[in-house]
Amino acid sequence: MNEPTDSTVKGAMYRPVDADLVKTVWDQCRRGDYESALLSLHGILKRSPKSVPLHLELAKVYDDAQKSEKTIEYCSRALRIDSENSLAYALLGSAYTRRSQWDKAVSSLSKALTLDPASEYAYELLGRLVLEAVLNVPSHALQAALNDPVTRVHYGPIVIRPELRVGIEYYQKGCTEKWQYLRVYYRMGMLYYHADKPEALQDRIRAAAKSGYGPAQEWMQELDASPQ
Hints:
Order of helices and strands: HHHHHHHHEEHHHH
Distance between the termini: 32 Å
Number of strands: 2
CATH architecture of the largest domain: Alpha Horseshoe
Structural class: mainly alpha
Oligomer: single chain
CATH superfamily of the largest domain: Tetratricopeptide repeat domain
Helix content: 55-70%
Shape: globular
């Protein structure tokens, strides 16, 4: 997945977490030493109990360690300080997905994108859910939903729509590497969230491509090369 970041950080209580500490923490996580990573973050949180970035770093580490109940706890604490923090909602979406609580996952990710339409991380998480839905819908029902704009096929809270066709076709080209799935997740999330807003979809792809986000740059090149 794309590295989760928070573009809403501002104000005194939003002082960024020390970059060297974050690097040390994630080096520990990569080695599987979550205990040391969490110990460091909890120690600093005691000195800065209203730090939203610290709560979110803890939520990220717990999410990486697949401890969804703790991810939910620290996202909820962050939201009590900042009720409109997009990253907190995105991480909640990840935690609820791990717990197979699909309604809450989709609701949280939709809220994250409402607050920050530029959150590639939230699109990836939403797209992962959408792809799972597509793969679990019987082929005849999937084709019916893709061919008829009136037909609606539901998989939990996910609604299969014709707008997803290009994402499904991209997936069907073949995904064998992690980076290829990342691009599929991003496309499916974007197509799903912007299903009723084609102009917003194009604008979002273009903006993400300009920012240097690889999956959007690839997508933009394909769109520019396709016949109008």
